[in-house]
């Protein structure tokens, strides 16, 4: 046998007596029965009180006078509006009384329509709407190829007979011909002539090689940049343009007089 490690002096098989720890005794009641704590008479009274509380029976001393338990059948009772029977419901004792009351006083529900209301589906029983592929077609002239084609009413605003004609028709409204054209504002600070077509012409002229380090587009990892020799972005003449790789193009941002003289010698 061992002594309890909390130094209480009791003999135990384990480290501590039940209810003890290193700090000492947690509570004297822990680990003891009701008889050991309160004696026989008091233990029996406590057991009865616990069993009555579990069944819903409360002693007189537990609540104050006039207290109503939650499970007591003492809810307020009123008379049914139709049959005058006592009920615990709000207005009617049953569903049938509710229906009879509404029928007697001509009370309509919220979902009912007003008098002389004509529903949307009256006289339409058995009538099916016309499918889209059987509607009357309208005759339209294609604005690109001038052919006649037919469309249903939902596509009456169509302009072309096919996607090819539509693409060609849209290409006619480019730059000055477009209604949204504002003197090439989207190309600023470059002129509208500085476009992809001009850039490809300069790359082909320079054999797609950087004019400073002879780097190709494959080594560069992308298409060559087009640089303005005199740094005037509005001057888009071919003599003023040259192909450079990305690294060499970044170098030209500084010491501009040196680069202008170098590019003029190269040309």
Detailed description of the structure:
The strands form 5 sheets. The chain has a two-stranded antiparallel sheet. It has a two-stranded antiparallel sheet with strand order 3-4. A two-stranded antiparallel sheet has the order 5-6. The protein is built from 8 helices and 10 strands. The chain is flat and about 120 Å long. By secondary structure, it is an alpha+beta fold. Among the domains are: 138-170, no CATH class; 190-266, no CATH class. It is 27% helix and 10% strand. The chain has helices spanning 34-38, 40-55, 95-104, 163-171, 196-205, 217-220, 246-251, 256-266, and strands at residues 2-3, 11-12, 20-21, 24-25, 78-79, 86-87, 138-141, 148-151, 225-228, 241-244. The longest helix is centred in the N-terminal third of the chain and has 16 residues, at 40-55. The protein starts with a strand and ends with a helix.
